[in-house]
Amino acid sequence: MFKVKEVEKIPVPDRVKRALKEAIGEHNVLDDEMDRMLYSYDATRLTFPPDVVVIPESEEDVKKVVKICYEEGVPITPRGAGSGYTGGAIPVKGGVLISFEKMDKILWIDEDNAVAKVQPGVITYRLQQAVEKRGLFYPPDPASYKFCTMGGNVAENAGGPRCVKYGVTREYIMELDTVIYTGETIHTGRITLKDVAGYDLTRLLIGSEGTLGIFTGITVKLIPKPKAKKTVKAVYMDLESVGKTVKDIFKAGISPSALEFMDKLAINAVEDFGHFGLDRDAEVILLIEVDGHPKALEDEIVEVAKICEMNGAKVEVAKTDREAEKLWEARRSLSPAVAKLGRTKINEDIVFPRSYLPEALPKLREIGRKYNLKMVNFGHIGDGNVHANFMINGLDPDEVARAEKAVEEVFDLALSYRGSITGEHGVGITKAEFMRKQFSPQEMELMKKIKRAWDPENLINPGKMGLDD
User: Fold this and answer.
1) Apex 248 CA angle, 413 and 231, nearest 5
2) Would you say 54 and 33 are in contact if contact means Cβ atoms under 8 Å apart?
3) Cα(205)–Cα(214) distance, rounded to whole angstroms?
4) Cα-based torsion angle of the residue sequence 233, 238, 239, 242 in order, rounded to the nearest 10 degrees
5) How confident is the model at residue 183 (pLDDT cuts 50, 70, 90)?
6) Most buried residue among 184, 255, 378, 449 by CB atoms closer than 10 A?
7) pTM of full prediction above 0.85
8) Of the candidates 143, 91, 102, 145, which has an alpha carbon nearest to the alpha carbon of residue 123?
């Protein structure tokens, strides 16, 4: 998680560089030291420079690059915006990195069938804005939605606050165009609402972290844009009541469009960062959004507020859109705000089944105390997805060792409740060694066989998800 196992780097011969330049244009092939460094890292800040960066402008360019590299035994790493937290877009074996910054077009929006097709480099927020102008809605909203790309979202099966009601990225992917190891494109999926023919290869590719093929076209499902939304802020002085509140809201038959929490350290970090007017004395704050028809919304927001108050919270309903937006700005500021609490931020995104939250959350906090670490917890509590952050010096070997043990206990705690080691960040390289905690040897072997079938020479985003050994 802090030290990634060294793997053999595979250099790109000069003849391959020449072939790439000839195939897609010299201006789209970069190999000087500065360019290689700029594409060598993601949000983990781990650094593995590629030998060559290629920037395709079309699917045909991607096909040419993959064909050349595969025939020459050169590793290929696809990259979107490099905003991932697990090293999925880092070229650990060197080779060629494919950046999709020029494949950033919304190809079409079909209002009648409520679908749209985009290239992998499209920024998620751009797509959301474009479809909302037509009264449609693309719900997935990872925290980095204003700069992360659709290709990266599909590769990681990205989530966000709204998944509690609307689901993660996979629920909205209808079709994929994917370049496979042969340099050919396969088209999977249909834009129909029903399709039960054959194996679901589209679902297999979603969340595969770019290890099976290279996406060049993505068709997404859209839904009608909600007519209205309301936000509640609930302030708690104890942690246990928060988990019970979440359970009670869903038991009441209410499906919030977002249900987020931040603990005391997170609240104070955000206030230091942006002065949003949050209660610094609070133990936990819940932000709850409901959306839908305006008439139904009024009843739901009153009931949500009542449930929070019954569980001991001090409740405020945002009176204006601006008040609500300010609360969500605070939530979106958490990642950069928390980063200021330590030289190194270890950000894990474990998941618990919702019913266990009242019991699990206090145990999670106890892990930080046990190892005498600064621990900040926040996240998508409505779907049980908790971001457990350890803020450490990073230069203190003893503190790093304690943090490593703490992270392992965090994963063990999630798995003990039949949860998961990751809810949206993926596995990449930082969680690869923990795959064996969640999956049996038989399951791991099946995944490796799938990888070999799609990538016989292990050249497509190698070194990820613990599938190499």
Assistant:
1) 100
2) no
3) 10
4) -40
5) very high
6) 378
7) yes
8) 145
Q: Is the pLDDT of residue 7 over 90?
A: no
- pLDDT in the model for residue 84: 93
Distance (Å, whole) CA 101 – CA 122: 8
> Could you say which DSSP state residue 5 is in?
P
Q: Compute the mean pLDDT over every residue in the chain, rounded to the nearest whole number.
A: 94
The CA-atom distances, in angstroms, between 6 and each of 39, 416, 455 are: 19, 31, 21
Measure the CA–CA gap between 155 and 208, rounded to whole angstroms.
6
The structure tokens 């950033």 sit at 104
Determine contact, residues 257/216, Cβ cutoff 8 Å. no
Q: Which residues of 215-237 are buried (b: 16+ CB within 10 A; e: fewer)?
A: bbbbbbbbeebbeebbbbbbbbe
Torsion (CA) 57, 159, 1, 273 in degrees, nearest 10: 100
Dist CA 376 CA 334 (whole Å): 10
Encoding tokens for residue 164? 């509690």
Quick: pLDDT tens for 126-154. 999 999 999 999 999 998 999 999 999 99
Residue 334 to residue 321: CA distance in whole angstroms? 20
